[in-house]
Structures are given as C-alpha cells and as structure tokens.
Amino acid sequence: MTTDVHTGTPAAPGRTRRPAPARPSERRWAAIFLSPAMLVIGIFMVVPILLTVWISLHEWSMFTSLGDMTWRGLDNYAGLWSDAGFRNSLRNTVLYVLLVVVLTIPLSVLLGLLLYFPTMRGKAAIRTALFATYVVPTVAIAMVWGALYAPTYGPFDQILGAVGITGIGWLSSPDTALISLVVFHVWQMIGYYTVLVVAGLTQIPGELYEAARVDGAGFWRQTTSLTLPMLGRTMTFVVLIAVVNAIQVFDPIYILTQGGPAGSTEVLSFTIQRTAFEYGLAGQASAMAFSLFLLMVAVGAALMVAMRRRR
Amino acid sequence: MITRRLQRVSLRVTLAMVLLVPAFPLFWMLSSSLKSPQELMRTPPTWLPSEPTLDAYRTVFDVLPFGRAFANSLLVSGVATLSVLVTSILAGYVFAKYRFRGRDALFWAMVATMFLPPIVTLVPLYWLVSQLGLSDSYLGVMLPWLANGFGIFLMRQFIADVPDDLIDAARLDGAGELRIVTRVVAPLVLPAIVTLGVFAFVFYWNNFIWPLSILQSTEKFPVVLMLSQLLSYSTSVQYQNVVMAGAAIASIPTIVVFLLTQRVFVAGIARSGVKG
User: Fold this and answer.
1) Quick count: other Cβ atoms within 10 Å of Cβ B106?
2) Residue from the list A128, A254, A282 with its beta carbon closest to the beta carbon of B262
3) What three-state secondary structure class fits A136?
4) Considering Cα of B256, then B262, then B266, then B269, what sign does the dihedral take?
5) Homologous superfamily, domain A84-310
C-alpha cells in the first residue's frame, strides 16, 4: 500500500518503486498525457487567479473590454474596509463557517462511531440516506427546505407547535436566518464527513482496543482515551474540507434568502456575484474575491500546520 | 440484563432518528409533489397525500421547457464527465508511473487547484469565456471544468498501486503507452473510474453559479437553473406541488447514479478523502 487511507495523503511519489530507468521517450509521453489537463487547469484556473488580482487593482465594468480599465491601485481594497456592506458580508461568512465547523465536528464523530462500531442491521440504510442528501442538487433540496421552514403551515412549525413551541422565525427573522441556513448546510454535507470519519476509524489498529480491554477500559473510556485522540488528524482534515465548502456557500443563499432579511445572510460569495454581475463593479468584486481567497489560504495553511504536527 | 435491553432499545431509537433526519426532507419533497392544490392549502397540512396525483409533474413541463433543460444537463454533464475521466487517467498515470524532474511540484500544484472556490475566479472566467466568443453556449458552460485537480489526485492514488511489473511486461510485449493506459491500467482502477465519474457527474449536474453567470438563453439552461425559475411559485402555497415536482425531477439522475454505484463510490471517497 502506497496510500495513507487515513487522510488521503498519498505517499511521496518518489517512494514508488521504479524498476526501469527513465527513458527519453517517457518525457515525450509525459508531455502528451499531461497537456490536456495542464491546458484546462492553466487557462481556466491559474490564469484567472492572476487576472483576479489584476482586475482588483482597477475600476472596470466587466461588460466592456479590458482596455477600458482604469488603474486604481489598492483603492478597491482600501474601499472594502470602509464598506459596511462588505464588513457585514465578511462577518456573516466567518460566522457561517464557524457554525458549520462547530456542528460538523461532533455530529460527524457521533455518526461515524455509530456506523463503525455496532454490528447491527440498518447501517447500510443510514449510510444511503446520509449520502443521498449529499448528491441531490443543492438548488433543488434548498427549495424543499424553504417549504419545511415555512412559517406556521410548514412541517417544522407544525411539529414544534404540537409540543407548544411557536414563533421561531426560521428564514424570515434576522436572528435565525443564518443559523437556519447553517442547519441546512450541515444536513446536506454531514454524510460525506461521516464517511471520512469512518475511514479514519478503520485506521486505528485493533490491537490498541485489545490492550485497552485487557487494561479494563470500558466503551466510554476506550472512546475518550483512545478513539478520539487517534482521530485527531482525520478531524483536522474534515475541518479543512468543511471550511473550504462553507466559505464558498452560494446556492442556498440565492434560493432561500437572497442575503436577507436585513442583510443577515449576505455572505461573501453572494456579494461578489451580485457586485460583479448585477452592479457591474468588477474591480470591487475582484478585490472581495481575492480577499476571500487569502482568507481561505490562511485558514488552510493553519490547518495544514496543525495536521503536520499531529503526524 | 435489563440495562442491556435498555441499551439496545435506546440504540435502536437513535438509529431510527439518524435515519429519519436525512430522509424527511426527501420524503416531504415527494409527498408534496403528489398533492393537489386544494390539499396543499389544508390546515393542518397532511403528511401523506390523501389522493396522490401526478398533475404537478405535468404542470412543470407545461410552465417551463423542463424536458429541454434535462437534455441540456445530460449533454453538459456527460461530456464534461468523460473529459474529466480521460484527462485525469492520463495525468494520473504520468504522475504515478513516470519519473521526471519537477514531477512532484507539478502534481501538488495541480492538485491544489481543487481547493480553489469557483467564486474567486468567476469574473475573469466570465471575461475569458466571453473573449473566446463562448458566452451563452454549451461549450462555454463546460470549458472551464473539463479537467480538475481532484480527478488527477484520485487517479494517481489508485494507479500508484498498479504493479510496475504488469506495465513493464506489457512494454516488453511491445505495447505502446496509450495501449498500456487503456488496456492494462484503466481496467485495474475501475473502482476509481466509477468514483470519479459519479463525483464529476453529480458536480456538473448540480453546478449552479457558473451557468447562472454565463448563460442568458432559457433554451440552454441546465435543470437546476431552470428549476430556480420556479422560485416565484414557491411563495404561493398552492403551487408547492409544482416546485416539489421540479425539485424531484432535478434530483432523480443524481440519486439514481448514486444508488447504482454506492458501494464503489463510498469506498472510493473513503479512500480519496477529498471532495472535488
């Protein structure tokens, strides 16, 4: 095995055994086989990042030619900090990501333990249900959640009303709209993270549990002193992916709230899309987009360092 | 004895809850799509349709060109998925089995792009595709996503496990590199191909922000974009069945593809450990 299933980190490619020395023809084939992927990724991912930076230093309506750009230097970035709308978006995005992570960690571990440990029927059905939510189009299932969250006649209010809880505003109140969207997000994604946790659990050597049992540790003790500490790296990785997914949330915002009520669900990706495509302010939008990129790189780097430490 | 039984019962209850929570919104979608407008307006709402009807499914196709949208999505997702498979297998083979200077740096640089949120490059992508004269076209919808870092990563992972001896034996038999990839390597990494294929198909089928930004003509809209045109309906209770029917239709292909492949797919994800 050259693959570390635990977190999906491939073994260093250099370690793979190479019986035949590199032949001159290999170089040609490498170029031929790599060029389609490199062309697409180069032109449509690498070049656009550079273009984002370039555009962010200009004033430009994106519907005219690039020649119509006016140099603004760092003005767009300076403008962001005095822009209450951007600050609100940034705050909402950070809050959204934090809430998603805070809910995802315990839930994915609990579900992972449930799916991994007991040998009982129903596990396959649960896995299927958890993953079905993950593959359905976010746009489609967000519309369903709009109906679930509907005030009074919606099923959530009906169920809660039966036990005497009324008046939760869900998506229509600025106090609850963001957390309602977070709940939907976690609901849709949790099956994926659970599978990662189960993969992490299978990596813990069985002998460790044997030893723990011999030492008289019960299930609870085994979980807290053995399972959870051994899951550290997996969970760091889960958090990394959860942050990447949550930081770019767009579809449910567009479908369910359009940033409202009162800007309480206005997140960066939604603001960026609207600033560029509806207000035609490509320079400002690009400054926001690159700020989002830097934020993501910073969080990602911090988590990578944390993951290395746990090795 | 009693505590053990209690434990078992509580575990059963927990499992039932765990099954109910993910399934309920999907159940509600189907149930509402089968109700009549009269039933939708009833208070309290019914859980199951009292007289199930497929009217809403007919209405969806009447108010919007949903059939056309379905075909559009199949075309775009199908072609893009094929392209991702081909580019990823070829690149994955090179990164797993060839040796050249700068290989690892190049590999990680390409893999890193999978973490790039599309929103970061949305503006320049729109400009680039427009400059190519491809805005509001099928090709424009597909072009930026015809290869990705996740696919290359996944394929390299699996192809690295293909024994070098097999490849060398094929070379000794006079097989060319392309033949080795298609006849020796690809059949051995079939689970990875299935996993990546499902992942890519689901990704393109569900992709919303890019078609929303690049397309203007309704007749080129993919299903999810067409579905979002029903948003105005969702505010009226009596049209809830039409919205739900649309959502169900848009969801069917991804669910079918997943159910057909779930064993291989879930194992592949556990192994890759990364979302594209």
Assistant:
1) 17
2) A128
3) coil
4) negative
5) MetI-like (1.10.3720.10)
Q: How far apart are CA B250 and CA B226, in angstroms?
A: 9
Alpha carbons A215 and A269: distance in angstroms, whole number:
52
Single-letter residue type at B100:
F
For residue B100, report the phi and psi dihedrals to the nearest 5 degrees: -155, 160
Q: Which residue do the tokens 């024994």 mark?
A: B163
pLDDT in tens, chain B (276 residues): 677 788 878 877 888 888 889 999 999 999 999 998 888 888 778 889 988 999 999 999 999 999 999 999 999 999 999 999 999 999 999 999 998 889 999 999 999 998 999 999 999 999 999 999 999 999 999 999 999 999 999 999 999 999 999 999 999 998 889 999 999 999 999 999 999 999 999 999 999 999 999 999 999 999 999 999 998 887 777 888 999 999 999 999 999 999 999 888 888 877 765 432
Both tokens of A87, joined, read 């600050």
**Residue A275: closest C-alpha in chain B:** B123
Counting runs of H as helices and runs of E as strands, what totals does chain A give?
A: 15, 4
Are A270 and A36 in contact by the 8 Å Cβ rule? The answer is no
Domain boundaries, chain A: 84-310
Q: Which of A214, A212, A215 is nearest to A224 (CA)?
A: A212
Best residue of A4, A104, A135, A148 to probe chain B, by most B CBs closer than 10 Å: A135
Check CB contact under 8 Å for A62 and B258.
Answer: no
Q: Which of A17, A107, A131, A136 is best to mutate for the B interface (most B CBs within 10 A)?
A: A136
- B227 contacts B39 by C-beta, under 8 angstroms: no
The tokens describing A37, both together, are: 């992927």
Q: Are A230 and A279 in contact (CB under 8 A)?
A: no
| Ordered structural domains, chain B, with CATH | 63-272 (1.10.3720.10)
Q: What are phi and psi of A177, to 5 degrees?
A: -60, -45
The Cα–Cα gap between A134 and A137 comes to 8
- Tally Cβ neighbours within 10 Å of residue A67: 6
Tell the residue number behind the tokens 């993950």, with chain if given: A134
**pLDDT under 50: residue ranges of chain A:** 1-21
Distances (CA, A) of A169 to A89, A152, A180, A265, A294: 21, 10, 9, 14, 34
The minimal CB distance from B224 to the residues A48, A139, A245 is found for A139
CB atoms under 10 Å from CB of A118, counted, come to: 13
Pick from B139, B266, B141: nearest CA to B199: B266
| Distance between CA atoms of residues A233 and A67, nearest Å | 49
